[in-house]
Design goal:
The chain is α+β, with helices and mostly antiparallel strands and about 150 residues long. It is about 25% helix and about 25% strand. Strand 1 and strand 2 form a beta hairpin.
Length: about 150
C-alpha cells in the first residue's frame, strides 16, 4: 500500500477503497502469477487471521454463539482471491502432545479452516498428514526429487 500511495504522491494519506485497495489486490495477484510461472515449485506461506461472526445471543443467559473461521491474512478481498490462485492449500495445525508440541498438516477443509488438495482426489492421502511436502508427494505417487538448479546467469 505504501508503494502504491507513494507512486500517486499520496504517501501518509488514508487509503481509499476503490482507488487504493482494489489496485493493491490486483497488483498482488499479478505479482503472485509471475512467481507461479517460474520454472520451479512455488510455495507461498502466510499466517491465518481469525474472523468472528456473531450468530446469536441468548437473551436469558447472555451467552453468545459465534462462528469462527480462519482465512489467509491479507488485505480486503485478497483474502478470497489469493487462495483461489492455488490448487493446493494446506494449514499447519499445532497440537499439544505428551512429548510437547506436535504439528499436523490439514489438506482438506474441516470447518473453521479452508484447505484443499487436488492430490487427495486419488484416495491415497488422508485429510490430515504429517507436515512433510516431499513425503506427501511420494505418498500421492509423484516425483519428490529436487529440481535441477538453473545455470548461473539465467
Amino acid at each position: 500500500m505504501n508503494y502504491g500511495l507513494g507512486e500517486k504522491s499520496r504517501a501518509g494519506e488514508v487509503p481509499q477503497m476503490r482507488q487504493d485497495y482494489n489496485p493493491q489486490k490486483v497488483h498482488m495477484t499479478n505479482y503472485l502469477r509471475k512467481l507461479m510461472n517460474l520454472p520451479c515449485d512455488f510455495i507461498l506461506t502466510g499466517h491465518l487471521r481469525e474472523i468472528r461472526k456473531l450468530i446469536s445471543v441468548d437473551t436469558k443467559t447472555g451467552v453468545t454463539h459465534e462462528e469462527i473461521k480462519y482465512r489467509f491474512n491479507t488485505v480486503g478481498q485478497a483474502v478470497v482471491t489469493i487462495p483461489l490462485l492455488f490448487d493446493e492449500i494446506y494449514v499447519i495445525i499445532g497440537k499439544e502432545g505428551r512429548e510437547g508440541p506436535r504439528r499436523e498438516m490439514l489438506i482438506d477443509s474441516l470447518g473453521t479452516y479452508i484447505a484443499r488438495s487436488r492430490l487427495k482426489r486419488n484416495g491415497k492421502l488422508n485429510s490430515i498428514e504429517p507436515p512433510d511436502i516431499k513425503a506427501l508427494l511420494k505418498k500421492a505417487g509423484l516425483d519428490a526429487s529436487d529440481k535441477p538448479k538453473l545455470p548461473q546467469g539465467e
